[in-house]
Design goal:
325 residues, mainly alpha, two-stranded antiparallel ribbon
């Protein structure tokens, strides 16, 4: 049974499997027969999906197992709480700045909170500061509990130890990579994985003219986020500093960061593939593999998809993320 990827599709997969059906999750952006139809309604879409499924022409997205989906939910929940705490702190900074106040030290220590309490603020501004200060403490307790669960999961998965050999990758980054990528064997090459992740440039070619554009923005936004966070640290490491500096000088720092993120993902692919094949992680190092950041994408991408940065990957997540994979 085929259905388009949409908001809240997980329960439908479980229901179909309970009744013995084989669910097929359709990639909506790649289903051209539906996207280009003049007459579009649920009845017409269902008929087209049935025809494509019968002809084995259905552009499918990978349905992650329940354990992988639960791991994604845990990591995204933790990242969302960190983002919420950062938003509340930024709001307090904005209120103080709006009235011309600032201090060089922290706002959140004992002296900093005392300084905030003594500021002569208007009633509404004082209310905003008081309310915003009430939540970070409660969030910190919850985040600490989630961190303990994340560490326990990281300790139980040997692949995390393999991925943390990458420059700039901590346990959280490694777990997000594992959760978003899923089964590494579904990608025949590192180039396919990079294309699915949306880290390869778009290509516009006609006759002898070929133009490479920006990354398409498809794939997992959460995977690109943690790779970009890791790339900012890896770009200062001895392994990548020269490459990062050369690309940044020629194309700018943003493109250089994406290039390093692509290289990290290429190395991660080979590390995971070697671990999947049964090779000992101790004999496989992150420096054993290289990737080319400027390669053109080998396919059209994958399934549709998200404070201060820290090398462990536990910084503020993307504002929006889609995942139908």
């Amino acid at each position: 049974m085929a259905f388009e990827a949409a908001y809240g599709w997980g329960w439908l997969v479980e229901l179909l499997e309970d009744y013995g059906f084989d669910p097929h999750l359709v990639h909506p952006l790649r289903c051209k027969a539906i996207a280009s139809a003049r007459l579009k309604n649920d009845k017409v879409d269902a008929a087209i999906l049935a025809q494509l499924l019968r002809a084995d022409l259905l552009p499918e997205a990978w349905i992650a197992p329940p354990a992988v989906r639960q791991l994604r939910a845990l990591l995204r929940h933790r990242a969302s709480l960190v983002r919420l705490g950062t938003q509340l702190r930024n709001r307090i900074h904005a209120v103080a700045a709006d009235h011309g106040y600032d201090r060089t030290g922290s706002y959140w220590t004992g002296p900093g909170r005392g300084w905030l309490a003594e500021l002569p603020l208007p009633p509404v501004s004082r209310e905003i500061v008081t309310d915003s200060l009430a939540f970070p403490g409660a969030l910190a307790v919850t985040i600490e509990r989630l961190d303990a669960e994340v560490r326990a999961r990281a300790k139980a998965d040997l692949r995390v130890k393999v991925l943390t050999a990458l420059p700039g990758a901590g346990e959280f980054t490694a777990l997000v990579m594992l959760a978003e990528i899923g089964d590494i064997t579904r990608f025949p090459s590192a180039r396919k994985l990079a294309s699915w992740a949306g880290l390869t440039p778009t290509v516009r070619g006609s006759d002898l003219t070929v133009r490479h554009g920006h990354i398409p923005g498809q794939g997992s936004a959460w995977l690109r986020w943690v790779l970009n966070q890791a790339a900012q640290t890896a770009g200062r490491s001895p392994e990548f500093s020269a490459t990062y500096a050369a690309i940044a000088k020629r194309r700018g720092t943003k493109i250089a960061t994406i290039a390093i993120a692509r290289k990290l993902l290429t190395r991660a692919y080979h590390l995971l593939a070697a671990a999947q094949a049964g090779q000992a992680p101790a004999t496989t190092t992150a420096t054993s593999f290289t990737g080319t950041a400027g390669e053109a994408p080998a396919d059209g991408g994958g399934s549709p998809s998200p404070g201060h940065a820290r090398s462990s990957g536990m910084s503020r997540p993307p504002g929006r993320a889609r995942s139908s994979d």
